[in-house]
Amino acid sequence: MKLNKNGRESLLSVPSSPLDMPHIQPMRTYSNASSLRLNMGHDHDKDNGNVEEGLGYTHTLMYGRYTKDLGEFAKDEARKLKLLEKRRKQEDKQRNKELLGKRATRVKRISSWVWKHTLARLGEDWVFLALLGIIMALLSFIMDKGISICTNARIWLYRDLTSQPFIQYIAWVSLPVCLILFSAGFVHLIAPQSIGSGIPEMKTILRGVALKEYLTFKTLVAKVIGLTATLGSGMPLGKEGPFVHIASIVAQLLSKLVTSFQGIYENESRNSEMLAAACAVGVGSCFAAPVGGVLFSIEVTTTYFAVRNYWRGFFAAVCGATVFRLLAVWFQNADTVRALFLTNFTTEFPFDPQELFVFALIGFICGLGGASYVWVHRRYVLFMRSNKRMNKFLQKNRFLYPGFLALLVSSISFPLGTGQFLAGELSNHEQVTQLFSNFTWSRDDLTVEQAAIVTNWMTSYTSVFGNLICYTLFTFFVSIIASTIPVPSGMFIPVFKIGAGFGRLVGEFMAWWFPHGVRYGGRLSPIMPGGYAVVGAAAFSGSVTHTVSVAVIVFEMTGQITHVVPVMIAVLVANAVAALLQPSIYDSIILIKKLPYLPDLLPSSSGMYSIFVEDFMVRDVKYIWYGISYQKLKEVLKANKALRSLPLVDSPDNMILLGSVQRYELIKMIEKHIGREKRMEVAQKWQKEAEERAREEEKKKQEAELKMRRPSRFEVLPAPDILSLRQIANDEMLPPKKRVEALNNNLAPRKSILKKTNSFNLKTYAPTVQHSPNITPYTTITGNSEFRIRSAFEAIFKKSTTLQDVQPDPETGSISPAPSNTEVQVQRAPSTPGVSKKVQLPRERVIDMSPEDQKQWELEEMLKPIDLERAQVHIDPSPFQLVERTSILKVHSLFSMVGINHAYVTKIGRLVGVVGLKELRKAIEDINSNSFVVPPRDEEIHNKPSVEKPLLMPNASDKAVDMTVTSMDSALSNSDNCSDIELEHMKTEKTAIVTLPPQEPCGNTNSATDTSSDMGKHV
């Protein structure tokens, strides 16, 4: 509808009939091949009706009118089509996103070929593990170099500005604050998953739980750069935990690379084995302790360890530790491969047997201190979380908390202030090395080198004892506070320093108490405070982490095993005390973060044998069955995006478990059924069918026109040209029979000379039948002009409907259009024979469906049932399953040893539930806290008395008949309460039995039986 200048409706601009209204077809990059189906006429009428309804056509007295503007209607239709197109693209994008990474590319295939013919011949495991160790050694060395540069720059600024103390203070605190702020901001922007230690997360991942984006490349970048900046600031934090995380990320990335080579790393069990080896490499390359690193990683990250993976961890850890120490020789001017904290204790008489009691006492105190450390750390974190107002304020100002703590710690450790009591001018490595020194600090006859060391640990106000006490307490509390900064950081080095400071304090006290040594067997044994520091470091770190392998790490870090027995005694005592009081620091962080890790059952739990899997399983199981439709499957997958596999049953009624199917397989099946390749294949089929129908209609129309024509009484023949004469001559040379056949074939139907023009109809679709008008002598000038017009229109519509061939891409297997600039050889006019010319054809369009047709086609296809065998879906015929009466102790053992994430619960083969790590963990926590409530079980529900239902209601004429229905199985199962005569009667008589839920015992029911004849009489 248009408006004239006066604002009134202009009826002349609108067709007088809806049939004259043009069919609006928005411009698209596809052709409506699907619209040319058998019901073309019906669809056309329906489209006209939709147009009429959309334009708001109303009948008036004379002509009728349209109440809506044609442009607005076109915009609405275009908006609807755009919305349909957007939804389709979103669904395709979601399916392709889940299928991403599963399809091989050309680069991967080339890399696979190179891998198989080079490194794979040497042994894939060996090459992979050696490469992992070398990469981790390089990362550790580079990070240590960056940390050393930052620490030395801070000390250089402090020492070069000795004339101005205030500027010294600014230089001392500015660099740590800047580095901490940079680290906090960098990891928050790149990968927040890199914050913290990483060992609790790796413990959870190795347990079988997939944590989102914890093993990605961006997490690796954030972890490496953030940890370098954090440790370079001088904060009392470590790098052992983050290095375990870094090694695991490198192993995961290498596994993906090797998996793309189609090697041995395609299954998940092998991937977990490589992650376990990576944890050992992380510790080994961090402290140059391969043996202790393997044992420590086993103790920290796993509950049950497969011995077959032992050699993998040792080989990778040895490669990493060796390369790490060789890099120090090559680039740091080290004379040879040495231990990280080299000591030189005497080997003849390192300790007196009487000192073993003191070592055990150190272990006991360190056990108490380690438990206190874990408890204080957890309480501090929970306190910060519980204060919602402060928590909300700090979340809005993310840099305030890290900057404040960095400023506070740097101010306390300022050497001209309180830092003089804390050896604040020394780095972490220098502090541990001096604490392990094998001479007594409190004696008077010190050398120049020894006096320089003692100067760092005493002041004019305090002695060695006071400084060691301040150092231990400062590191204890400040490391707890600093570990809550949102940056990558570890906790092993801080607790190692706390133990070393406490052990050194006990050693100095023993040396002061026994200045000449301990007498045993007529011989004096001098006290070595450095040995006490080693024992204290091992005991305190072992009590915090609940590991015994720390002793082996200490032996490898110090390079001596003279104190094997004292270290082992102290570590065992400290572990025993700490295990009774608190969990390890890593388990405590798991509880704080609420990671889905499976806890251990307490020995005193009374419900270990009386609680079964049916008491805590999930009964609302999401499943698929044979014959499920694609639409139902799509709804199940869309509603349960977290499920990686779905159980397969025979039918929703029987629920017999037949196997399980991976989510990826199901999505791939849906994509194969309604994806782009299938859609374009169907569109191409529809196009061919439409062309065939158009050809048939054109042929029928021509035949009908020929039948309606009358033969002309006159025929004007043109003068034959040279080619015609040759053809006549050739025809005359043919036999008479063939000549007659040729003459009959050349006869054309006669046409009246009174007909001036050639009649034709202009259609929206021109078939691809190649035909040209016969140039006859009676074609007039008007006919030639109309033929030219017709030819022009046919060329336009033929160009608009000519469709590009759909060619499969040999690289990816997807359908792609043919090249647009196709060059063909076109023969010129007969006047210049033998001359050819290259003609560039215009770009043609790909066969595809319109959004409406695609939606209708997808709805029809999605309603079809799925044939899993024909779809070639991989079905796991033996998923892990439990019976409903499996005790929680067995379930916990199976989940822990096998490393599964979930198990299906069956009852006589029927799927009744599913149990996962989440449900099992919640049940164990409730059992350990004595708050688990056993729900009513199925057998208890079935054993409840049920109301008897009469089969037939007695009427007025037959009130004496009181028939009830009972179950034969129930009657026989309660035969103890029935008499022998009743049982014999029930067995011998022909009884009409209807099975119901179990009823009351036979003695308590009024059930009666009747014969078939009586039953028929009552019916």
UniProtKB/TrEMBL annotation:
Keywords: CBS domain, Chloride, Chloride channel, Coiled coil, Ion channel, Ion transport, Membrane, Repeat, Transmembrane, Transmembrane helix, Transport, Voltage-gated channel. The chain crosses the membrane at residues 126-143, 166-191, 274-298, 310-331, 356-376, 397-416, 464-483, 495-514, 534-555, 567-586. It comes from the Eukaryota. InterPro entries: CBS_dom_sf, Cl-channel_core, Cl_channel_volt-gated, ClC. It is a multi-pass membrane protein. It is found in: Membrane. GO terms for cellular component: chloride channel complex; plasma membrane. GO terms for molecular function: voltage-gated chloride channel activity. Residues 680-707 form a coiled coil. Residues 813-834, 1002-1019 have a biased composition (Polar residues). Gene3D superfamilies: CBS-domain, Clc chloride channel. Residues 1-24, 805-838, 996-1019 are annotated as: Disordered. This is Chloride channel protein 2 isoform X6.
